[in-house]
């Protein structure tokens, strides 16, 4: 019976792929039409009236009337929506709000998830992901097996209990289409547990008994923790001994590059497919559509109108964004999005570079607040991930987690970078690993290479190997354990590095 159901889904996904091909071939027409629909749907709202949505006819007029926004700009409106006010940023009342990492003044920020955003962006993005998975793998059998999801939790907003808050993964899980539920694991109650350690243990115990698992989706950090626990329970050497018919891992949230070696050890088969997705609290932005490349297809018909900030505009008081038609390959841009959740010319803080402009494909390069540029070196997360992967390949090491900060000039001393690294498998020689890492970072970033030339401005990077589990314990101590929480890779300050070193010193 399940084989026939899977065949039916294969046929359905072939039809859906035609829609994906349409926006790939007609990107600008699709985006202009989408913007028009967003403005039409919200012209009567408080925001729409204040910015004259009713009379906007072109993207240029829209950009002139609405300045680029950050979370602090929209926070007062979002707060009112959380308390039940209607027709503020979006039509009607919004019930769901996704929780994500906070700004400098807030521990968390809350992003509205309208019914349109939930159905026509996040859930639609999930269907698109499966469409592209089946397109790449004719033997895909996700709908004749079980598939595991690792999501967050939900809770009521105390001042207005009709509002529900949680990780976007939890909101999507709770609202999963009925047709998909028989094929997903675990049950909704377990999936939404708010005690992350208890949930991991329940997931591990139950998953260890599952034999026909085809796919798992989740943030790499927590998937590694889960896999380790399952292997402890079962006594197996790798996950394919637990799930012999396993096919694919869908990942997002952080770069997969530092984790690839670990997953290849967990899943030692060339037949395993790894698919990257770009699903944030603000929307489902992109999906890896070709498993032979490491970029992602920008989703242009999922309720999001895209603009982009060139790097020189990131920290200006009144930044000027460019339209999709003006982007160039190889340059770093910060995302600016207008969405069917009521975010208008909003900057989520992510940075991307384009690898293709027909169709439009991107790589995530980092965050506008996650980079090291204390000396003009402009090092992005993509650079450190790539250099680290090269060093691991050259030395046989495997890295579990890392973070990087600048070392500032002191007196007549030189500057540099300080790395805190947790190894899954240590290199034979730490000194050689450090030299390899530094050389590779120079290879992938010419600005860093220039600053390192003859040690004139920057010294060779420093690296501190940390005991196993340090980052997870530090995250737990910060109240950032589980869900969508991620280790900050880069910072242009020393706060995280010093916090971790202090945390480690206090434990010893």
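^ structure tokens above, recovered residues below v
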């Amino acid at each position: 019976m399940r084989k026939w159901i899977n065949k039916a889904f294969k046929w359905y996904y072939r039809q859906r792929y035609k829609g994906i091909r349409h926006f790939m071939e007609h990107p600008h027409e699709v985006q202009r039409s989408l913007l028009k629909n967003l403005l039409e749907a919200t012209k009567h709202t408080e925001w729409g009236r204040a910015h004259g949505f009713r009379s906007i006819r072109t993207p240029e007029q829209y950009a002139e009337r609405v300045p680029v926004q950050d979370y602090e700009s929209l926070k007062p409106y979002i707060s009112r929506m959380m308390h039940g006010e209607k027709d503020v940023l979006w039509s009607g009342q919004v019930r769901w709000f996704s929780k994500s990492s906070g700004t400098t003044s807030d521990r968390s920020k809350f992003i509205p998830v309208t019914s349109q955003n939930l159905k026509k962006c996040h859930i639609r993005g999930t269907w698109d992901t499966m469409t592209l998975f089946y397109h790449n793998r004719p033997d895909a059998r996700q709908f004749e097996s079980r598939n595991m999801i690792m999501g967050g939790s939900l809770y009521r907003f105390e001042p207005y209990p009709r509002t529900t808050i949680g990780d976007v993964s939890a909101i999507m899980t709770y609202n999963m289409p009925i047709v998909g539920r028989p094929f997903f694991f675990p049950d909704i109650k377990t999936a939404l547990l708010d005690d992350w350690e208890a949930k991991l243990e329940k997931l591990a115990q139950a998953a260890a008994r599952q034999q026909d698992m085809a796919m798992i989706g989740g943030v790499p950090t927590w998937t590694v923790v889960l896999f380790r626990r399952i292997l402890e329970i079962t006594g197996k050497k790798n996950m394919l001994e637990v799930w012999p018919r396993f096919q694919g891992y869908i990942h997002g949230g952080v770069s997969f590059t530092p984790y690839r070696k670990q997953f290849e050890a967990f899943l030692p088969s060339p037949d395993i497919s790894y698919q990257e997705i770009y699903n944030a609290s603000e929307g489902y932005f992109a999906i890896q559509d070709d498993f032979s490349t490491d970029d992602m297809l920008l989703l242009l018909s999922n309720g999001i109108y895209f603009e982009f900030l060139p790097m020189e505009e990131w920290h200006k008081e009144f930044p000027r964004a460019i339209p999709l038609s003006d982007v160039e390959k190889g340059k770093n841009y910060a995302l600016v999005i207008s969405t069917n959740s009521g975010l208008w010319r909003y900057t989520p803080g992510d940075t991307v570079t384009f690898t293709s402009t027909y169709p439009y494909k991107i790589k995530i390069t980092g965050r506008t607040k996650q980079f090291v540029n204390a000396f003009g070196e402009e090092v992005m997360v993509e650079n450190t991930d790539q250099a680290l992967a090269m060093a691991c390949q050259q030395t046989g090491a495997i890295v579990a987690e890392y973070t990087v900060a600048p070392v500032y000039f002191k007196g007549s001393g030189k500057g540099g970078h300080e790395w805190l690294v947790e190894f899954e498998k240590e290199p034979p020689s730490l000194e050689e690993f450090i030299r390899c890492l530094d050389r590779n970072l120079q290879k992938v970033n010419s600005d860093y290479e220039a600053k390192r030339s003859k040690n004139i401005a920057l010294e060779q990077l420093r690296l501190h190997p940390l005991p196993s589990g340090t980052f997870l314990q530090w995250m737990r101590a910060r109240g950032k354990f589980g869900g969508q929480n991620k280790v900050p890779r880069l910072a242009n300050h020393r706060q995280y590095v010093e916090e971790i070193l202090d945390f480690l010193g206090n434990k010893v």
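The first helix runs from residue 2 to 25.
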